[in-house]
Amino acid sequence: MNRSRRARISPACREAARWAEAYLDGELPAERWPDLATHLHRCVGCGTHLELAARIRAALAQPAAGGPEAPEALERLRAFAHGLADGSGTDPGGSADPVR
Ligand SMILES: [Zn+2]
Question: What is the model's pTM?
Answer without folding.
Answer: 0.51
